[in-house]
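Example 3.2
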Amino acid sequence: MLWNNREPIGRKKRQTKTVHHNIKRSSYKLNNKYILIKRLLYNGKYHYLGYLTIISLILIITILIWGIYLYSEICTRIDGKVWKFPVLVYGRIVDFEPGMLYTQNQVIKLLEVAQYRKVLYINHTGEFSIKDNTIDILRRAFNFPDSKEWQFHVRMTFNKNEITEIKNLDTGRNLGFFRLDPRLISMLQSPNGEQRLFVPLTGFPNLLINMLIDTEDRYFYRHGGINLYSIGRAILANIHAGRTVQGGSTLTQQLVKNLFLTNKRSLWRKVREVYMALIMDARYSKNHILELYLNEVYLGQIGNEQIHGFPLASLYYFGCPVDELSLDQQATLVGMVKGASLYNPWHSLKLAIQRRNVVLHLLQHQKIIDQKLYDVLSVRGLSVQKKGGVIIPQPAFIQFMRNEIQNKIGNNIEDLSGAKIFTTLDLNTQKLADRAVQKEIPILKKKHALKDLEIAMVVVDRFSGEIRAIIGGSEPQFAGYNRALQARRSIGSLAKPTTYLTALSQPNSYRLNSWIADTPIALKQSHSNVWKPMNNDHHYTDKVLLGDALIYSMNIPTVHLGMVLGLESVAKTWIKLGVPKNQLHLVPSILLGALNLTPIEVAQVFQSISSGGNYAKLSSVRAIIAENGTILYQSYPQAEYVVAPQAAYLTMYAMQQVVSHGTAHILGRRYPKAHLAGKTGTTNDLVDSWFAGIDGKEVVITWVGRDNNQSSKLYGATGALHVYIRYLENQAPTPLELILPEDISYFNIDSIGNFVCNKTLRTLPVWTLNPDKLCENPKKITE
């Protein structure tokens, strides 16, 4: 033993007692775990297992956190607002009442425009049948601006050109009022170029739903969002083919991809798709997922607009709501789910038919349909609508509508997402106007060798002022310069009726048989210029009857009359009729149309005259309903009395004579029993050609000319009037029966305008409180 290892001699020192500190149990456990992990890390035997455990823990935590994030993303969208819907714009709601002047053929055209189908026996909504003098209709349910109305069966009975009875066949009661559901005419502000119409799951045919599930995801109600068997089968098929030939996605996965992901193919996107599908299936019911899918699935494209959902696809391809699709039509749309571009009936008709028949064969195999029905359906053509033929662009009308909405409720269209706008546009009227332009303008261009000839046309209801159609150029369906709203042109002789209306408003001074001068006149205008107007034929008759001066559109008598009345007096009438005050310049040439108005403004003037002196501001919007059902705006058409109905009646009578034997006599020869009223208008050097045509329902203003203000080589009677005649070719005008106001009586006059009691060749209406005295004292009123 070494000396330094020996213990000291003597008593041993007392050993120091170990001091135990008060260590918390939790800290102790953590220390033990730390030691355990440390041993695992540095013990060679468990070195890799330790790393794997930590990585697994981190991965699990990451997946859980990611799942929470994806869950939040899914819930935020689906529980909130899944889609930002476009603004839906509807056409005119057509009202019917017993006693209204509609022929059976006119109602049939209105039904066809509203996309109702003529059948022998009615089985579904949207169908009608004809028997003798009746029309049976199964009207669709529709949420009108004021109330929701359910489907019902109605019968309309006709006697010549009148509706005599409207009966509800479900209740057997006669109706005093019936209206058609309006047609969708436009979808505005579609987000990301996507268009869709939302329909709840209960609004889809059960057969379509079953067909979709059997074709795309037969285990939809059994799996938890993904189908491992389908995925494995698809992988094997793709490996065997060396390319992607089969997909294993469920409907839930497809919905996830459409709502949250892109079309870019990658492993990362597929992983995310699977995870989100599992979360979605756990969070939402199968029916909710199915409802979202039916309204989201991509089914084609028109231009830059994508067609999403079966409801909109049904409308675009077949022109009817989804619940009115026939079995083969349903199969066509279901077949497109596999590849909307590949099986698009507009582009690949043969492939679309083959794919449809595959779906039908599946139904036959499952004994949903028998072999006989399959044989019938599989040989049918697709009968799809013409591309772009369902929702036809109406840029001129939509522009006017936008301006009106801005003025009335102060909102831009962009602020009205999901809203429904009910307009006054009559699609049948618009179609006829478009057709008239497309037929007549090329003829005029060729005849006068003018490639740049343009047109504007406005059709309004003469009583309500509601706009039925607008055309802004020679290519009506293309947006651009809207001449109906923006082109201010000299109106020529369309200005003359206002001067005569002013005179006839003074019955003690002027009547239709009053004499007015027809002698040369020279007048000083602004800047000391002398204006010397002339008649079109450069002849003068010394004097002419007031009514004849308007009927034959004579310049000199009109100027003489206007100067006697006073320019201020005539200008006041213009303002009453709706002309903006800032467009009126009090110079003598204003009497012959030296004021620039748009066709819309001209339509307002003639609406006020033709309705008996009642001004109804032109409008294009009846109601605006927000997405939540709130009424944002509703119109209540009101007419304002602006001129005496007697004066308006006398002016309209003279304008009827314009058509029967005046400057528009070619129109009178074509429709002698319609008693149409009208007025031609031509400006200097034949720059502008105008015509105002009026029948029992409508005022139609037509302008033809060139944007560069060069000569159009057209008079009012050789240009604009011909377009109006073309417009009437496919729709016979409603006879114009003027309502005789109080204190208007008809009297016979002789060749020099005197009242006579015996029968003569000419009779004129006169505004007088004492009709008997006129016959007793044959006397005419002079200037």
